[in-house]
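hey
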């Protein structure tokens, strides 16, 4: 079986391309997962093929990456509009990072919204590989009615629902065809000395030789050839499928590529797991592509026995058939297989770094509809995070509520639907509260005496404390300067412990930070003093001092790294400034052509707005990662609003 992924932005007709390709020589067999990855098996030219139709939204990029991990080649579908070329930038970046040979297919060519050469030029801004036109359109006025192959120099006229008709190259197209063919041959000659010599000697190379060179440079992932068509009308599908058949490398090349990327012995690399999902009454289903021999139900894979093997298209058992190298199969009751991973018979190996999904930008608290589902929700989210690496599951500080980090609103909606449909857990969501702190602006001294007599031994402790602000980021400190044993040495740790307890909640209701406490004097009683008494005296004394110390609210500031295509960079300073953030600088992304990396400091309360603004300004392409940097003071109406909201939430709970 040969396997390829069809990927690209939404609304570029990916599913239609798969449907038409898979139906060229008979009916296909199709299955889909809750994550939007569709799998289609079909036969073409007496070979079995598997097409992975990857979901289009940028929020599903993790599943796109995993599909590429199991693919011999891929087809990147794009729009014929030059201004929409940027939408393909995330996919070009992933394709090039993965090393997957790629054919770029300009779909819906019958809806021209610009010149093809402008589309390719715009895309080239985001691709390190040369994008080589292999076909050019034939126009009649404003309509595109066919295509011309630049290697064979043959022209076809599109026919609705039928194979294209072979025609002579129209005179109106001849000059453009020669220009584009010359450019193609010059690029190909960079990878073939024979062709370079032929061109220098001004000899016309044979078409068969050119096809062989084209096939080799694609298998070696040297260039990205560009084909055109209109899948909805069946135009260009046969040419695209033939290009895949002749030019996509075999599964042995994938095995070699993965072994090299994962630092695994190629001879031991048996399979790759690339997708997983949960089904009612069945559990976890793992999609696996065989890379070597010897796989069957009960065989050792990933360090344990492989569970029942099923046909991924219909779910029927394949226990009697051993998957051959290249075959895709579904494994159930094989929960030991992580996804994605490289698999040997006795171990699982982490996938290459390029499979890491973008950092999730949307944080939400999930609230179960009933108390009965609270424990179930925690266990279920842990399961789902195993099959969806774009999802991160945490607990909210302070409440312990289930906090999820999703790629965006579509990803969150799909998660909630899976919880309801598969696990019967209905949830609502809310925005988590930013983590605020408080500190003091001035020093104060306090003398606190704790005395309690309840019959029998009493409680007595007397402390004199100085409470003062520390430098930002210094945290809590404790010192003592007592003399003469007025506070016995064995009670001083209890004084520190009491001071630390007082820091857990200040007058504003938040944890206190960057405060120092110094014990300067005190008294004790030979009978009634104890560690508990001194701990209590210290805690109550520090609380009293904090209430007298001009408390200041502190907001968290995060250092954000924002990744966006360069065409959108001009908008970013304004976006960050509007959120009261600070741009620290930006650089070209050396790993991704056409992308910039911005570094900025952003208040924690503005991160949700940053994600929303970034999605809007970059058509869903831009994303950011974050790391806590420091706390800084927050004053005025904003601080008052935070304090009131916190108090209201405390009363309600």
């Amino acid at each position: 079986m040969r396997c390829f992924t069809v990927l690209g932005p939404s609304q570029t007709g990916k599913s239609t391309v798969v449907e038409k390709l898979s139906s060229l020589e008979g009916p296909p067999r199709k299955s889909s997962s809750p994550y939007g990855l569709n799998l289609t098996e079909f036969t073409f030219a007496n070979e079995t093929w598997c097409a992975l139709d990857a979901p289009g939204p940028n929020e599903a990029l993790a599943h796109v990456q995993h599909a590429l991990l199991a693919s011999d080649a891929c087809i990147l579908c794009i729009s014929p509009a030059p201004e929409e070329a940027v939408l393909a930038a995330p996919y070009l970046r992933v394709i090039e990072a993965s090393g997957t040979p790629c054919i770029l297919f300009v779909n819906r060519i019958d809806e021209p919204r610009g010149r093809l050469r402008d589309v390719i030029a715009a895309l080239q801004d985001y691709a390190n590989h040369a994008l080589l036109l292999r076909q050019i359109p034939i126009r009649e006025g404003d309509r595109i009615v066919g295509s011309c192959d630049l290697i064979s120099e043959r022209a076809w006229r599109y026919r609705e629902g039928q194979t294209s008709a072979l025609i002579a190259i129209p005179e109106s197209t001849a000059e453009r065809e020669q220009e584009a063919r010359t450019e193609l041959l010059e690029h190909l000659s960079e990878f073939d000395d024979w062709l370079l010599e032929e061109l220098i000697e001004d000899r016309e190379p044979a078409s068969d030789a050119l096809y062989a060179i084209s096939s080799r440079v694609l298998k070696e992932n040297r260039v990205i050839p560009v084909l055109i068509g209109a899948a909805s009308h069946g135009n260009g599908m046969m040419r695209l499928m033939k290009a895949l058949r002749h030019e996509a490398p075999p599964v042995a090349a994938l095995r070699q590529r993965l072994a090299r990327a994962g630092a695994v012995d190629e001879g031991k690399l048996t399979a790759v797991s690339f997708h997983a999902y949960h089904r009612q009454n069945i559990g976890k289903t793992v999609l696996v592509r065989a890379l070597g021999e010897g796989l069957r139900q009960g065989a050792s894979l990933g360090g344990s026995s492989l569970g029942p093997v099923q046909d991924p298209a219909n779910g029927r058992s394949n226990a009697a058939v051993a998957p051959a190298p290249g075959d895709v199969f579904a494994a159930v009751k094989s929960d030991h297989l992580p996804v994605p991973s490289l698999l040997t018979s006795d171990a699982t190996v982490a996938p290459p770094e390029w499979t890491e999904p973008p950092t999730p930008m949307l944080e939400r608290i999930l609230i179960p509809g009933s108390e009965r589902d609270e424990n179930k929700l925690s266990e279920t989210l842990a399961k789902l995070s195993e099959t969806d690496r774009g999802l991160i599951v945490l607990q909210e500080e302070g409440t312990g509520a289930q906090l999820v980090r999703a790629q965006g609103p579509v990803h969150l909606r799909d998660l909630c639907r899976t919880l309801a449909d598969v696990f019967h857990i209905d949830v609502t969501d809310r925005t988590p509260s930013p983590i605020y702190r408080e500190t003091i602006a001035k020093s104060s001294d306090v003398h606190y005496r704790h005395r309690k007599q309840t019959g029998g031994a009493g409680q007595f402790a007397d402390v004199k404390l100085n409470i003062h602000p520390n430098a930002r980021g210094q945290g809590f400190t404790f010192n003592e300067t007592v003399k003469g044993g007025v506070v016995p040495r064995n009670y001083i740790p209890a004084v520190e412990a009491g001071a630390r307890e007082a820091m857990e909640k200040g007058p504003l209701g938040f944890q206190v930070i960057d405060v120092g406490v110094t014990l300067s004097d005190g008294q004790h009683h030979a009978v009634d003093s104890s560690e508990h008494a001194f701990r209590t005296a210290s805690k109550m004394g520090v609380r009293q001092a904090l209430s007298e110390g001009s408390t200041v609210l502190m907001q968290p500031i995060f250092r954000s790294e924002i990744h966006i295509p360069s065409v959108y960079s001009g908008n970013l300073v304004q976006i960050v400034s509007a959120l009261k953030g600070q741009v620290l600088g930006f650089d070209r992304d050396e790993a991704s052509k056409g992308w910039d990396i911005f570094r900025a400091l952003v208040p924690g309360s503005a991160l949700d707005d940053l994600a929303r603004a970034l999605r809007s300004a970059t058509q869903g392409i831009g994303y950011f990662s974050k790391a806590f940097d420091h706390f800084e003071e927050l004053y005025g109406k904003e601080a008052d609003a935070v304090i009131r909201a916190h108090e209201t939430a405390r009363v309600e709970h």
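Residues 362-425 form a domain with the Alpha-Beta Plaits fold (CATH 3.30.70.870). The chain has 16 helices and 33 strands.
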